[in-house]
Amino acid sequence: MAHSAQLNILEQNCPIQVEHDRKRRQFTVKLNGCHDRAVLLYEYVGKRIVDLQHTEVPDAYRGRGIAKHLAKAALDFVVEENLKAHLTCWYIQKYVKENPLPQYLERLQP
């Protein structure tokens, strides 16, 4: 019974809300209340350079576009803060290839 009371944000057709925790250097999406979450981790590797390191979505939520929201939020952060980005995370690399926006491409570090 307790499980049926917990509604998944995706099942409610609620918009996916990405939160940015600058102190922990991560973007998150809360799933199923606050028990599960998807996360994108980054680190500063220079004064104005961030490394987008890792994106993780729990298995039960994969294939629903959650990682795309995390990737977009992280890249928009890079643009808004006038940073450069190194893409260690394979998913972010794929996202940029599928969404080759000039404002993203000009921010990439080799």
Automatic annotation (TrEMBL):
Pfam families for the chain: Acetyltransf_CG
The superkingdom of the source organism is Eukaryota
Domain called N-acetyltransferase: residue spans: 19-109
List, alphabetically, the Gene3D superfamilies matched.
Answer: 3.40.630.30
InterPro entries named among the record's database cross-references: Acyl_CoA_acyltransferase, Gcn5-rel_NAT, GNAT_YJDJ
Question: What SUPFAM superfamilies does the entry give?
Answer: Acyl-CoA N-acyltransferases (Nat)
Indicate the family of this protein.
Belongs to the NATD1 family.
The name this protein goes by in its record:
Protein NATD1
Q: Which organism is it from?
A: Monodelphis domestica (Gray short-tailed opossum)
> Where is the organism placed in the taxonomic lineage, from the top?
Eukaryota, Metazoa, Chordata, Craniata, Vertebrata
* Gene encoding the protein: TMEM11
